[in-house]
Amino acid sequence: MPTKIAVLGAGSWGTVLANLLTENGHDVYLWSHSPEQVATMKQTHKNEHYLGAEFTLHDALHVTADLGQALDQATVILFVVPTNAIRSVAEQVKPILQAHRGRGEQPIIVHAAKGLERGSELRISQVLADVLPSDLIQGIVVISGPSHAEDVATHDITTLTAASEDLPLAKKVQQLFMNDYFRLYTNTDVIGVEIGAALKNVIAIGAGALHGLGYGDNTKAALMTRGLAEISRVGVKLGAEPLTFIGLSGVGDLIVTCTSVHSRNWRAGNALGQGEKLADVLKNMGMVVEGVSTTKVAHHMASELGVDMPITDAIYQVLYENAPIRAVITDLMQRSGKPEFDFDNASLQKH
User: Fold this and answer.
1) Domain formed by 4-188, architecture
2) Fold classified for 191-348
3) Which residue in the list 200, 220, 296, 338 is annotated as catalytic?
4) Do the annotations mark residue 265 as ligand-binding?
5) What is the pLDDT of residues 291-346, one digit of tens each?
6) How far, in Å, CA of 228 to CA of 232, rounded?
7) Known binder of ligand: residue 50?
8) Is 200 a catalytic residue?
9) With a threshold of 0.85, does the pTM exceed it?
């Protein structure tokens, strides 16, 4: 019997995941806040703004601007909206779930967004838990890992992580998505998976900037490796498992986001490296660049936690203090010498 799944957010990733779940035989409703977008998608069976003209929606995929219709009898609700829209969309979902209470089993909440909420510095699962009471839902699962919507759309082989403190829920979600080109592994380290997903976008802006400036492979490898060290430090400080950061949602996602032209964060950094202004870059992108907002949150978080994040701080200076990129790189390289692994540093220990 097919599972009814509501996918909230009709950007590139939401559309591709909704299509995949439909291919897997589920009854999927893709919700967009824009009636105009829904009308166009129904007429053309495409989502050209996000996925180009080549990608065609599955005939059985339902597209709607009616949130109540999408959620009615849904046993899984997948949030795929930008990080800073998660709370507002969840607040729209809450009264509908309250009205549907008792009409069926409580839904599993899943999210596939990657960021940290501005102001609160909360991870996305924390935002969802803050808005949606535990008596309305079964629990929360995070799906994350090295993935670009454009590649999944062409059935490129992709592996991700399904993470939840409730392992049986993660296994249920795992089975919903699995097919011959899309594979999920389970994990119980929600903190590590979400921190890796959010902070790799910051490092990807730096990787793009290096490319735009003309630096070579040595420089990019240095940035990614030391960027992963920063991500691991703050993650472990928050309670994550260190091994998570050498997994799919850690180094895996970092690699794909720092090396692909499909990455909005990489493209934004590349444009900055070529001398474009941030405001113009964001305007021309036409889609949310999560790493820009996350950089500000991560910079403040590092200060609060007392965690050393020099690369993140450097990217913050470029984005928010108009610091020249080459000058920032020089400052990074001229810092005092340090050991590669500081095992005496409490922030590197898992307690």
Assistant:
1) 3-Layer(aba) Sandwich (3.40)
2) N-(1-d-carboxylethyl)-l-norvaline Dehydrogenase; domain 2 (1.10.1040)
3) 200
4) yes
5) 999 999 999 999 999 999 999 999 999 999 999 999 999 999 999 998 988 754 44
6) 6
7) yes
8) yes
9) yes
